[in-house]
Automatic annotation (TrEMBL), chains A, B:
Pfam families for the chain: BcrAD_BadFG
Database matches in PANTHER family: N-ACETYL-D-GLUCOSAMINE KINASE
InterPro entries listed in its UniProt record: ATPase_BadF, ATPase_NBD, Euk-type_GlcNAc_Kinase
Organism the protein comes from: Streptomyces indicus
Name of the featured protein: BadF-type ATPase
Amino acid composition bias (Basic and acidic residues), ranges on this chain: 35-48
ATPase BadF/BadG/BcrA/BcrD type domain ranges (all copies): 13-320
Domain of life of the native organism: Bacteria
């Protein structure tokens, strides 16, 4: 890192690619004597500038399309750099949904493309669960539960990643947004049919929310391509009647048990281990978080539930900063977190 | 019915349209003194000739395409009639998956089209659940559970239809084939992750059945358009290890409870009411049927589980025969069972 003239501003880029688009953050590299943990503090002070594209990166036959990602990333990052007064990009971290299984094109083409565009040779390619982890806990050991429409948990003691669930709405994501929404609509239809387990309150909410009798739900749901998101859109309604409706409360209790199962499967064995909850699902608050903390206390008495320090984009900045400082401490396994041979 | 010369053979057509294609049966009208119940006996003696097309009838913007159905039905029915030596078709019953919600084109165009093709003016248009009912119980009151990839129950005391579930793999079909298969794969992935509720036996079967590690299941399942059928294809594996594996046995026990819930919601209140189980799912036999009969005894002590007498195609013949004999006794509600004004 002696090729940058003294006084030239030094930056890192964090990138978060997901179903809602591409987000980019430019953050200064902390002073040479900073540690990776200090960089966490810098982030908390929001020194990063960010840009957002609402166009999700395309997925083609080779997986996530590196060319389409670069087309969006380069102008966004150059604009951020210009606004910040210019300087050198020392490291980039790209977090992407589907990186482990759909990241071949990114792993093959991004190192050269980023070297050409920014002269940067330090690069980390991470699954979105890894950037969620780094955003929530930095580089400390622990476990992170990331829950939105889906649900995945990732834990590490520092040597390897332990992953649980994240298998999608038909094979898992147990306790996630699509799971809870589906259970709520199941209870609404049970009430319609006169089957056991029905909830008149959830039926009334479903009829108001989806604007029509529940018998029309199949015709509204199945033609959609974003079915998991449609199911998850019903979560606030389930949470909204949990205080009065025992069926809704039972659904959130069952979700809490599934989420705790998943956290327990990845949590390192150390006592006083941190477990962070991150992702939009926890925005519903107490109706889910209270039973979840109770269940974590039962299943993981050694663990301590903590708030997530930051989001996945901030996690990408944590990874890039750690790379820039030669201080990456999270496990690199080539799939969840891939760091091509560093050259600088 | 005096316009057919004495001695001319008189026939009915039963039609069953579903995801696997179109099936047509030609059966003789029983003698004038026969009752609808006698016609049941004729069917049991397999006097119907059948033809099968493997091409499912197309669904367009107006629902199930009446023109595409007629294109296939007319040559098949005329060939059956020719083989049988000719004669007059007195009534037709068409059962179709999705008839209630997707049957507008059929209700609008089939009466005239069938009158033109066969000179027949007696027509019944039925949901596949109704033909399943008529195949299983004839025109007697009771309840029928039809389970394959999906799951629906239909019951009647003779005046109205009571329907429960059949809402598809994301909203219901609780205890059906896709539900059981999905639960089995969930248990396989729980074992992979080290989550509670996992089954090593189901994981081993999933790896053998889907030819690879369970972590590859999402990439195999989600790109498919026939996801419910893929899930249901795993049912025999769940059944196959239920004797040794408590997780698999628990899945089938839970399915039995859901199926009994659904039957209980539609079963008429009469004592000694018949409940028939029909559809491919029950082909797995005791691992599901034994706990289901136990659960029915608990939830519906007044009911008597009976074998289905025939399949949905035979049910269509029951309906057509009843029409031909002016003896239709099942409820006509315009959606589940629609009989345009009879003219002869």
């Amino acid at each position: 890192m002696t090729d940058t003239p003294m006084g030239t501003p030094r930056w890192v880029l964090g990138v978060d690619s997901g179903g809602s688009g591409l987000r980019v953050a430019l953050a200064p590299v902390p002073g040479a004597r900073s540690t990776a943990d200090d960089s966490r503090t810098d982030l908390a002070e929001s020194r990063a500038d960010t840009a957002v594209s609402r166009q999700p990166v395309r997925t083609g036959p080779d997986g996530i399309d590196a060319g389409h990602l670069m087309e969006q990333l380069v102008p966004m990052a150059k604009a951020l750099l210009d606004e910040a007064g210019g300087g050198a990009v020392k490291a980039v971290a790209v977090g992407a949904a589907g990186m482990a299984t759909l990241g071949d094109d990114l792993r093959a083409r991004l190192p050269e493309a980023l070297a050409e565009a920014f002269g940067v040779r330090r690069l980390a390619l991470a699954a979105d669960a890894v950037t969620a982890y780094a955003g929530a806990l930095g580089q400390r050991p622990g476990a992170v539960v990331a829950a939105g429409t889906g649900m995945i948990a990732l834990g590490t003691e520092g040597r390897t990643w332990h992953r649980a669930d994240g298998w999608g709405h038909l094979l898992g994501d147990c306790g996630g947004g699509a799971w809870i929404g589906r259970a709520g609509l199941d209870a609404a239809l049970r009430d319609h049919d006169g089957r056991r387990g029905g909830s008149a309150a959830l039926r009334a909410r479903a009829e108001a929310f989806f604007d029509g009798p529940v018998s029309e739900l199949p015709a509204k749901l199945y033609p959609r391509t974003d079915r998991p998101a449609v199911l998850a859109s019903f979560v606030p309604e389930v949470a909204g009647c949990a205080a009065e409706d025992p069926v809704a409360a039972g659904i959130l209790q069952a979700a809490a048990v599934h989420i705790a199962d998943t956290a327990a499967a990845v949590c390192p064995p150390e006592t006083d281990c941190e477990v962070a909850l991150t992702g939009g699902l926890f925005g519903i608050g107490d109706p889910l978080v209270v039973p979840l903390k109770e269940e974590l206390a039962v299943q993981l008495p050694r663990a301590r539930a903590v708030p997530a320090e930051g989001n996945p984009l901030e996690g990408a900045v944590v990874l890039a900063t750690a790379l820039a400082l030669d201080a990456l401490a999270l496990p690199c396994d080539g799939r969840l977190l891939h760091v091509p041979d560093a050259k600088d």
